[in-house]
Amino acid sequence: CNSSVYQMSPLNTVMLVGDSGVGKTCLLVRFKDGAFLAGSFISTVGIDFRNKVMSIDAVKVKLQIWDTAGQERFRSVTHAYYRDAHALLLLYDVTNKASFDNIRAWLTEIHEYAQQDVVVMLLGNKADVTHDRVVKREEGEKLAKEFGVPFMETSAKSGLNVELAFTAVARELKHRTMKEPDEPKFQLQEYVDKEMRTAGCCRS
Ligand SMILES: Nc1nc2c(ncn2[C@@H]2O[C@H](COP(=O)(O)OP(=O)(O)OP(=O)(O)O)[C@@H](O)[C@H]2O)c(=O)[nH]1
């Protein structure tokens, strides 16, 4: 007989967005299955989704994660889903300058189509790559500060910060839907920074 009682959160939708090839599908597969999809790159068509339940304190937080197609020709499909997203993980690729430059356009689009209070987190993916890196971590931090969104670098290949990115978002969403009246506001960036410091900078 298991006496532990879990509370269950309402379903939270988390949408992965960003240019084609930045690693959205790989990030989701790493988070869900703990594996890296090596080999040929197969672009997502339209939209795909996976469910995951995370335990945050004594609460089961249900996430439905939508993996969108980054290719321009699927953009109208993505637009239709923004409205129902509770959180957005916006990715660029640290080895692809254009994907970083396009973040401003993605943020404009988010502003136009998503709910006003949507949780947005900027992720600089492929941080495992050293020789081909063209976007410095500081540049990602600066852009994120400018738009007032939390930021971290990730790697779907090594697993760096992948769990942390989803945990931070799940905590924020849990806090929003199940906050005790006297509980202080959850500070997402502070939580991320603290977790990274505790893990000695970077965690996989
Ligand atoms: N080195 C490295 N390669 C990665 C990483 N994440 C993804 N890749 C590679 O980048 C390519 C594109 O990854 P996907 O996850 O399919 O990209 P996507 O953003 O889902 O692309 P679309 O479906 O077209 O929007 C693949 O060849 C992956 O192996 C990473 O963290 N590090």
Automatic annotation (TrEMBL):
Q: Which UniProt keywords apply?
A: GTP-binding, Hydrolase, Lipoprotein, Magnesium, Metal-binding, Nucleotide-binding, Prenylation, Protein transport, Transport
Q: Where are the transmembrane segments?
A: none
Q: Which InterPro entries match?
A: P-loop_NTPase, Small_GTP-bd, Small_GTPase
* Record EC number: 3.6.5.2
Q: Which domain of life is it from?
A: Eukaryota
Q: Which family does it belong to?
A: Belongs to the small GTPase superfamily. Rab family.
Task: For this entry, list what GO says about its biological process.
Answer: protein transport
Q: What organism is this sequence from? A: Oreochromis niloticus (Nile tilapia)
Q: Which reaction does it catalyse?
A: GTP + H2O = GDP + phosphate + H(+)
Keyword Transport attributed: yes
The name this protein carries in UniProt is small monomeric GTPase
Looking up Pfam families in the UniProt record yields: Ras
The family database entries (SMART domains) matched by this protein are listed as: ARF, RAB, RAN, RAS, RHO
UniProt key word Signal: no
Cofactor(s) listed: Mg(2+)
